[in-house]
Task: structure prediction
Amino acid sequence: DVQLVESGGGSVQAGGSLRLSCAASGFSVNSVCMAWFRQAPGKLREKVATINSGSATGYTESVKGRFTISRDNAETTLYLRMGSLTPEDTAMYYCAARLGRSCVYSDYAYWGQGTQVTVSS
Result:
């Protein structure tokens, strides 16, 4: 069975850093498009970062230069390194996988349960 489990969220002060992890089972995170999304209360879900099977990455404008998406060599874990955090980054963060190598499309088939990130000013 395919399963995604996020961890690493928490509370941090503005300017701080966190690293989120997404443990995958049932497939290799290196073989498909993986992404991090976030959703703040009262707001639409937002795609934050993507990484395709060729390791090309993409970021939403608001996190460019502050967040880094990566994968481990064991092909089981996806990461999101977040730096220079602001209160606007407060949200539930989800990892997702789509059944394809490209991240051009948005039909993500598998989702984790989410991990909460709270940034205080």
Summary: The chain has no helices and eleven strands. The mean pLDDT is 95.
